Each structure stands twice: as structure tokens, then as C-alpha cells.
């Protein structure tokens, strides 16, 4: 199920990226952004942006920046989660092997490690990926600052367009 954000910068499916993330396509007559179900790799909820017919160049730039940021975020977290699950599986397997245990404790049951043993993995994983997460956070803040800046510019443009006197067409 998708949720309508009632945002004025909404869109119909436009990029191949969105097709990879979610197969859902909002109704064609929708005039809002739609937020999809969580992606199975990144756990992020994709946004399908509505493109209004009279989208200004500034609104287009904002929408494209939001889409690029979403794609960048999607890629980072899909890669990060894949790495996390692989390394976690390797850690569990090696610890169980060191204990002389198999991955299957009993038929239909998977052998696990206790919380203290897993805390060791989590600490090691976070330490090993500290630099990567630091760069991600820095870039995320830069992108969100740019998006916020463009949102302000779009809001001012809309206010200006409402306050500006309409030019009447004259026939000669």
C-alpha cells in the first residue's frame, strides 16, 4: 500500500531506478507524491514523484535533486545492508564452528549466538565502517541542505507568482 504525501512536487514513475525498487505505479490521475512499501534490500520507502504539467525550471531542479538523493540513498543502504548480512553470517558461522556446532541446531532450527557474542560483531562492524558512515552522513547533510534551499526558492517563486499582477492578453 502506498501513502499519498499530498506534496505539490509529486510524480508519475519516470526513472528505471524506481521500477527496480517498487513495481507499484500510482494512479495516472494522481496529483501527489506516493510513498511505496519498504524496499527489500535497503529498507527505504521509495517515493514516486508527481510531475505537474506546468512545472517550473526551479521545481524541476528540486524534484530531480530529490530523485537523485533518493537513488543515492537507496544504493548506499542496499550495499550497506548486503555487506552487513554477509559479514554477520560469516561471523556467526565462524563462531559456531569454533564451538564445534553446526548452523542447524536441530531439524528446522537455526543455531544462534547470544547477545554478548553478537555485540562483539556489531561493535566490530560499526568500527570497521565508521569512515564510510561519516562520509555518508556528511554527504546526506549536504544534499538535504541543498534540497531545503531549493524548497525555499520554490516557495518564494510561488509566492511571487501569486502576488505578481497577471498580465492580460490583448488582441490586436
Provide structural commentary.
The chain is built from 4 helices and 5 strands; from the N terminus they run E-H-E-E-H-E-E-H-H. With 172 residues, the protein is mainly α. The protein has one domain (3-161). Strand 4 and strand 5 (109-110) form a beta hairpin. It is found in: Mitochondrion inner membrane.
* Radius of gyration (Å): 23 Å
Total number of β-strand segments? 5
Number of H- or I-type helical stretches: 4
Neighbour order of strands in the largest sheet? 1-2-3
**What's the overall geometry?**
elongated
Q: How far from one another are the termini?
A: 54 Å
Helix content: 55-70%
Largest sheet: 3 strands, antiparallel
Strand content: 5-15%
Main features:
mainly alpha, 56% helix, 5 strands, single chain, 3-stranded antiparallel beta sheet, 172 residues, COA8, mitochondrion inner membrane
List the helices and strands and how they pair.
Layout: E1 3-4, H1 16-21, E2 34-35, E3 47-48, H2 57-98, E4 104-106, E5 109-110, H3 115-128, H4 130-163
Summarize the structure.
This protein has 172 residues and is mostly helical.
Amino acid at each position: 500500500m502506498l501513502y499519498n504525501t499530498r506534496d505539490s512536487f509529486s510524480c508519475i514513475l519516470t526513472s528505471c531506478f524506481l521500477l527496480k525498487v517498487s513495481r507499484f505505479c500510482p494512479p495516472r490521475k494522481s496529483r501527489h507524491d506516493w510513498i511505496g512499501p519498504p524496499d527489500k534490500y535497503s529498507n527505504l520507502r521509495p517515493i514516486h514523484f508527481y510531475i505537474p504539467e506546468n512545472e517550473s525550471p526551479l521545481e524541476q531542479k528540486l524534484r530531480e535533486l530529490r530523485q537523485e538523493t533518493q537513488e543515492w540513498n537507496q544504493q548506499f543502504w542496499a550495499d550497506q545492508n548486503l555487506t552487513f548480512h554477509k559479514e554477520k553470517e560469516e561471523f556467526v558461522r565462524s563462531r559456531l564452528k569454533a564451538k564445534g556446532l553446526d548452523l542447524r541446531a536441530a531439524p528446522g532450527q537455526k543455531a544462534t549466538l547470544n547477545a554478548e557474542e553478537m555485540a562483539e560483531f556489531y561493535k566490530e562492524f560499526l568500527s570497521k565502517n565508521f569512515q564510510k558512515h561519516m562520509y555518508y552522513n556528511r554527504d546526506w547533510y549536504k544534499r538535504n541542505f541543498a534540497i531545503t534551499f531549493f524548497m525555499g526558492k520554490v516557495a518564494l517563486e510561488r509566492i511571487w507568482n501569486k502576488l505578481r499582477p497577471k498580465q492580460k492578453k490583448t488582441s490586436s
